[in-house]
Amino acid sequence: MQRYFFNVQDRHGYLVDPDGIEHADAAMARHTAVAFGRSLLGEDLAQGFIDLNGSIEVMNDAGTVVHRVSFAECVLVVLERTSLLE
Predict the structure, then answer these.
(1) Which own/partner contact pairs does 66-70 have at CB distance under 8 Å and 24+ positions apart?
(2) What integer pLDDT is reported at residue 51 of this predicted model?
(3) Helix, strand, coil shares of the chain as percentages rounded to 5?
(4) What is the pTM of this model?
């Protein structure tokens, strides 16, 4: 298991994750970053807005950035009214 850190860049600035989370590999850490991004976007949505310009930087315990996940990658935005069953 390796520790990964999830640093957030958004309209508030750059927030460093001091604790991190242990994962088996970088792919699992990316899944966590996507879920974290969705959570952050959900908090924004509760306030009545969405800002997709932020990102989450996934860094391993050696300080190497292994993924950068944009908020826009965390969601599917549908602007036109369409049937999802088509």
Answers:
(1) 66/4, 66/26, 66/29, 66/30, 67/26, 67/29, 67/30, 67/33, 69/30, 69/33, 69/34, 69/37
(2) 94
(3) 30, 30, 40
(4) 0.87
Q: Are 7 and 15 in contact (CB under 8 A)?
A: yes
- Other C-beta atoms lying within 10 Å of the C-beta of residue 2: 15
Residue recorded with tokens 């242990």: 22
CA dihedral 80, 41, 32, 85 (to 10 degrees): -20
Q: Which residue has the tokens 């991190």?
A: 20
